Structures
1.
Amino acid sequence: MDNARGEGGEMKGLKNLPLSLRERKRYIAFKIIPEEGEDFTYSDLQAGIWNTLLDFLGEYGVSRTSFWLMKDCWDEGQKMGILRCNHKSIDVVLTSLGMIDRLGDNRITFKILNITGTINSIKKKNYCSFKG
Amino acid sequence: MTVFLENWFIKSAYKINLGSLLFCGEVMKCFDLHVSPAFSEGRSSPEQIIERARLLGFSGICLVDGIKNYKPHREIKSSFDTKKFGIFIGFEATKASDLDRLVGKRREFDILIVKGGDLKINRRAVETPEVDILSIPEYERIDSGFNHIMAKLAKTNQVALEINFREALNSHKSTRSHIMQKMALNMMLAKKFRVPVITTSGAFSHLQLKDPYILSSFGVLLGLTPEESRAAISKTPEDIITVSKEKQAEEWIMLGVKVVK
């Protein structure tokens, strides 16, 4: 029986795509260096990144990057996080991050820590506090 | 067998590409040759800039001043350990008269940058072998300010063309798209005529300094290959610094000519 169907034949969910058909992802670990005495929240970060991406690339452009900011991997203490995009759009995503110099009223600088092909290799290097 | 070999080649090429990206900040020496500190037009002290550049993974930076109050700034170099982190002093000419004055004092500083924009100064810059970098030839112009003849001259005199990230950072919407279009056109000419290209942040404060990964990616967006783009932040600036040291020596007369004792 098809794995995607239950005992009664009803659909349980989509069957996973074979590896060869899946999109090739890249995980970018980043750290944000805020100015002394200035702080920001995760929602500032989310709004800042999405607004800049949409300004710089447009809605269609962002759709081509498969961009995703991974909320579970945000480390509030260290100000480190991970975002995901596809392997063809690393350069546009990184340039867009470079266009961000403020989050709300706070001045910040992005430092790129690592770019990997799997989330596990980032976790091994302790760039991500989320172990789930 | 052929399929196996092809797959192996693709996999190994993928590994090399990803590996070199991974080591960008650690193995490759990255330089930012255009930063304006507080003694120039900038807003941050040299200490703040150097601290932030180290944090971002640069191996050296060039602090750029204008000709207005000419001073070689030797005390900055002596106050830092330049063996661990390269600190270079550059001067920027915006007019032909400034360029003449700076060419006369060429042995006193490390890097000579010409801020382009005007066609005459763009042309003078690429014709002068003492000049190291032509910065933003497209500045406030409708055209790109750089053509195939200038490209040939720049190649002959080894004048590097600069991609300045601040130009894109400080502009918005249609202005940014125009600037990037002109930069891409200049990059196409630079690639065709093998003009050296460097990518800089052009920062006016330590907050505008950008990560080497980001500068490298910006080059790729403007039409450089990943290898060329990486060279624009590492190998080419390193070559400029080496040639510049030769230019500062008393034996140096012009490109390829020096006194042998």
Note: The beta strands of chain B are 31-35, 60-66, 86-93, 111-115, 133-135, 160-164, 197-200, 252-254, 257-258.
2.
Amino acid sequence: MTELVEVALAAPPDLSAKRSWRSVKNGLMTTLMVSSAVVVALPLVAVVWAVLVRGLKVSVENFPAFFVEEIPAIARRAGPGMGPAILGTLLVTGAATCIAVPLGVMGAVYLHEYGRNNRFSRLVRFMATVMTGVPSIVMGLFIYLMWTMRFGYSAFGGALALACLMLPVVIGATEQMLKLVPSHLREASYALGISKSRTIVHVVLPAALPGIVSGSLLAVARAAGETAPLLFAVGAANEYNPHLFEEANTALSVQIFGNATSAFVAAQDRAWGAALTLVFLTFLVTFVARAFTARVARRR
Amino acid sequence: MLVADEIGTERRIKPSTAGSVSSPNSTAPGESGPPPSLQRPTANVVFELSDLEVYYSAFRAVSKVTMEILKNEITAFIGPSGCGKTTVLRSFNRMHDVTPGARVAGGLRYRGAELYGPNVSATEVRRRIGMVFQKPNPFPKSIYDNVAFGPRSSGMKAKADLDEVVEKSLRGAALWDEVKDRLKASALGMSGGQQQRLCIARTIAVGPEVVLMDEPCSALDPIATARIEELMRELKSTFTIVIVTHNMQQAARVSDRTAFFTTEIEAKSDRRTGTLVEYDRTTKIFSNPADERTENYISGRFG
């Protein structure tokens, strides 16, 4: 009897993995997920690669000139530049951000903190959702009728159209972020005898800030690439126009559209250069905003 | 402090807003006295509850709570889960105002002033009646800013004043020596016990008269718990403290008076409602309780 027990103890248990249907399934699903990830990444990498290779050619060959000089009036002439379009994109997108982000954030604060589920805020929320689905060309047409027909082409008209497109995104993202702020933070503030408005400004919004910045950035990046509404509202200029409210302006996205559809190789090259510039600008804005948010978050 | 007395004299005469006067004293346990409406507020009664009821929408969570909480004492609320201890505590500083659907009925006076009377500002109430929560909930700010947030909000701007309040409050919460070299560091990097003491410091920085504590030690280890209990005994001379606890030993160790709550099941509707069973000196509750249910609960024979 004792001998038997000893033998049983001496033999180490077999802990090796056994082949089973479960382990086969595991391998199968893992392969599936990895290949999905690759498939998702593939077009992204291809796009960046194409833009980089072709865009770099034209912009590096004429290095500072491409980003500074005015757009040639004769499309078949080779060479720089895209200066006015860069300024135009910054003007239009910047103005649109200045309109849409404060409005959107304040609107979302109302919806989530004050309106809650009353009739009015439900209506606003519904309208915002509907607005997300409005095609940008329709928004451009709307601004064309309401603004451009009366006041003529200007960067501001384009900014209005882009702001209309950005608003629902900013509202939605901000409201989601406000929902995520833990209720115990609000309670902690209320328990100190601090008013609701002060709690929102000093506790809730700072806690939601990184998410609000991310959401707004997404909206900015989307708006910077919009072309259709700008075709209606901004017009097409080849010279620098630093005025927000006067005269036709231009933007990178409009230039990409115009030049890429041109029959001349020189113009097509400029379109690639403009595309690279736009990607780079978007990346730059995202990077700066993230760095800023990280610094604010660290300070707290 | 001056404003408090003004509110007190103003509202003292106003009748309770709730109409629940059907059976004022029939079930009042423990201490009996004249009906609340005839009682003149004595100097050291902080909270005066008469037939307090709290509803969450249609559900009556707490009913028939009548008691007086005295100044510069530690009053402990004990009882099984779901018996309404926390619900009663949260009605003391109008925290129910933020919960949609929550409603408080019956008489609840603070130093003679009707807490739920018209024109009473919840903000003003909470500035005088602070609260420490079950889970330490420091703001995601620096240690200094956590403590300075309350005073800043009430208009204190000078750095010297703020520095003084922060140091005094952190000393009051027995935290100063541990954090004085890293006041600018984030409060989220502290241990749980330190965070809870920071929350106490943050509460006393506003200069409240009462500190409500909702199971302040339930997320802490025994050493941190002992420090908080020690702190409570020190704070007692300055503040009135009401503490909800699941830990009967804690109630026995720190409190002067203990209120035992339990859940009653209404016969006809099968609805559960929390109610006050017995309220007395802690020594009496733990040695010679008057109610059988209290006896069963404190001796661990609760069914």
Note: Chain A touches chain B at residues 116, 182, 184-195, 198, 202-203, 206-207, 299-300 (CB under 8 Å).
3.
Amino acid sequence: MRDKFYIVSFLLGVGLLLYAGRSLFQESAIVTWGLTFAGTTAAGVLGMALYRVQLELRASRQELAMRHAELNFALEVQRALFPRQLPTDHGLEFSGVCVPARGISGDYYDVVPLSNGRVAFAVADISGKGISAAILMSNLHAVLRTLAAAGCTPAEVGARLNQHLHQVTEGLRFATFFYGEWNPAARCLSYVNAGHNAPILVTSGRVQRLEVCGPPLGLFPDFELGVRECRLEQGDLLALFSDGVTEAGIERGREFGEAQLEKLVASHAGKPLAQIQQQVMTAVTRWAGQEAEDDLTLLLVRVTDENKETP
Amino acid sequence: MRIDGHRLRDHLRLLSPLFGLIVAVWALRLIMDLAGTPAMIVRLVSVGVAGAVSVLAAAFLIHFKRFGSYASVLAAACLLICWEQLLIVLAIAFAALTHTANVYSATEYAHGLSPAGHIASHLIFGVTIGWVFAAAMGCVVLWMLRHLVPVKGAGRIGTPLP
């Protein structure tokens, strides 16, 4: 209200003054003033626009730095979820690697020594990539460790994880999952494979695949995964991997493929696990020719001559 | 007397650097002229432009210091333009009283008017039309500032200066 009063008074005053001094008026002055103020306004608006752009850039940079810091923190947390030291007793030796495609990974591998002297190992691949897949992965990790520590059989682990994942994601996300439990005394591996890439078993120079027992976890509310068993001998090599390994290069129209992976693993089967792992990862990275399009996970397991069961 | 919730003293304190800017340009122009600097160069040092820039800066100050609203811009435009015109009138009056000439009393700016007419034209048209243009520019600038660069927490209008 007060603003309106000022403006009306101002305009009235201007009108009166202009009328009173009309004989002194110089038209060129109007042009000069008009140009001066119009130019100044334009310069001011330009300055404002540039300042706005600068502010937005600064805000974007800050947001990006914050997200980067959060992502780094998430990566650190996720690294802590992967086993820091892989067990070397129980008649098995391990070597594992996970290379995330987008900073943090939706893939998962774990090796859990069990209280009954056995050892369990698992590989999973959560559908999707990035943060959402990583959150589900950490959840899967926690539940799996709890179930394994509670002495659940592979079938129970598979069934309960499936129920849990279906409940959490309401059937919208799924996870391919391989879980094996090694009995060193019987040299027997009991496993369930829920839709995961069939692991490669190299035994006495021959290549076999550990078959898939059912659909991925989380798709259906309730189903039982059939448990398979196989006997392993000293020197047998098991390669568990995620689809990121075999599908590397698919964006360019030619994927690395399971046949090539089988051949590579079989040809290096006699070498130390770390060396085999390096050979595979180098070959896959070279094949993909660029940054990984999907998370790459590889867990190598070899039966050693140590056949001791923790009492 | 309060304008937009502030005393006149507060407005003057806010605008004091801008008054200084106008005086500096006015004095520089005068000195350059007296020193015999070519008219082409003296013309570039314009008190009118200094006034316009001051009003622009006043709109920025009012916005970023959360000093007030459009009424404050009108007041700032009035004070700055009056100050600018007053300085010019002083220079013309000094030239008339001392029977000398300076850049402000030059015939190209007097448009054939007598010193008294020239002074009257500055006081009438310089102040009024100058104020109209300055106020319009200040209001446009403030409006754009509010849309382009809103100040955080600028809900309240008319916060007094600390």
Note: The first helix of chain B runs from residue 8 to 34.
4.
Amino acid sequence: MSATPFSDVLAALTRQRGVLGSMVVSEADGIIVDSNLQIGVKGNVVAALAASLYRKARLSAGAAGLGTANFVQLEAERGRVCAIGRGDLLLVTVAESRANVGLIRVEMLRATQVLEQ
Amino acid sequence: MTVAVVENWVEDPLRRFVGDARVRLALLLHPSGQVLGQSGFTRAIDVMSACALAAAIFASAGELGNQLDGRPFHVLHHAGKERQIFIAPARTPRGLYIFLTVFDRESSLGLVQLYFAEFEQRLASAAPPIEPPQVVLAENFERDLNHNLAALFGRA
Amino acid sequence: MSDEIRRLSDELAREPASLVFLPLGEALRRQGQTDFALKVALRGLERHPHNADAHDLLARIAVDRGELERAFDEWDMVLRFAPRHAGARKGMGFVLFRQGKLEEAERYLAEAMEADGGDQSTIAALAHVRRALGRPISEMPPAPERPSDAGRPALPPLPEMPLQPRASGETRISGAHHRGSGEVRSSGEILRPAPSGGGLPEPPWLSQTLRNSAPPPAAPVPDVDPREREALARNPRALFADLIGDADQTALLLDAEGFVLAGAYVAGDGRDVAQEVGAELSGVSDEAQRAMRHLDLGDWQQIVVETEVATIALAPGPRAGLLLVAADGAMPLGMVRRFLDRAAARARSFVEGIA
């Protein structure tokens, strides 16, 4: 697969300790635009569900008068999913529970600059 | 949302798909255009029209793919301003069926694809085995033939 | 419209969030304009849901409207915010007296007298109730005579409440000094049971204690101690008040269907928008649950949503409910999560308590 504008950013994110994969997803469709995933990670599933969750959070927060959501984190028993949006695209990260979510969040915020290009 | 089916084994897979994917309309039909199950439609005539169009679209798209790519187009997606349409074949031991769904912003293409894959698996698992063709006995054949002939020529 | 009401109305129009709705509501109530008084009180309560005097005003309006149950509930709310509020106990005593629950009425009135021993109307009310119960009132000072409430509609007569008979069928009251409708002439007089079909006349001053008495000064909000916390836990809207403190944050507990169980969410204009906010954000947890079935990550534990002005955190609540906290965007994420954890513990205790 040829490199996309997001390849380097995704590779850097997936190199973080505890990160199982990262991807750029279309928020409206939930379809992967580009991804860097460890084997066994169901990228299509994560993409569709993360995009749906992010959109729901964004719309709900706006409707509740709490502003526009830009970072959503879902924490579960065996891992977490983080999503940050810019325009039509989302940057989604799947990580294990042991991952340093603070560091991942900082890296994702930095990486959104690529999404804006 | 109500789910109406012609054959009972279709109901559970269809209901679960509609609940998971949160689509507006869903339709399962035989390639000939006969409906097997539907959800979200309010009028029978709409169901009949949708079935006829879906069967025609599926057949046309298949042939178009054959012409262009040597293999039929199967999964079709159209994104409108407010709603989107997704058409795909659902393969079961009883044969191929056509699945059509319409969704809006409550769902997404990714989710529809995800849940359609599950739907197809459940449908295939739920499909009852095809009844083996009955052995034609000479005495029954003659009786049936006489009956049909009488019906055709007005002597039944 | 009287000058006072006009003045207070103008002041309230200039400062809708002020407490001037209290004297305005009271003035309207005294003039018999209970519908307007009710509207003013309810609007004021939207902005000041934890104000004891506001609930006290609403209770007295409810009495004027004949809604005794509602009045009792509002005074109960007053006591949750101001446990030593004598006016509330007096009012509850009155309601119970009207309902014929004399024992309970005596208890509330006695508590009111403990909280404010100088209130003559409370003393008079308690004496009347004790007389009705056939209990000694020798240690009570005499109740003052009060003018009849001219111009006001008379209260309906009380249902028949027979005196507590002694074994001999007679009732002795000792040391009685009171004068009123239940007149007792001298100490040691035997009071015969009322004839059948009659009832105890309601002394005018018993209901007037509610109509004419000014609201007592607001009791200072006590520091939260374990007993207070337990009391707050019984008031759903103030369930998280002590955890919130002065910080710009709030918490809501929703049930499995997205309805608010506890907490409050007051918007910038003073409206409680808890139900709307809860309904909108509960959809996020539904989405998370749907996602969990496919992500193979186990059950979801927290969702954090950062916006440009706020941080919202959600966690599963007890009994398939949802806990939601929202904090100003400037609050560190770690603090928001800590607040969420504490609110979750409080929510569990609350739900277990109402189970």
Note: The longest strand of chain A covers residues 19-26.
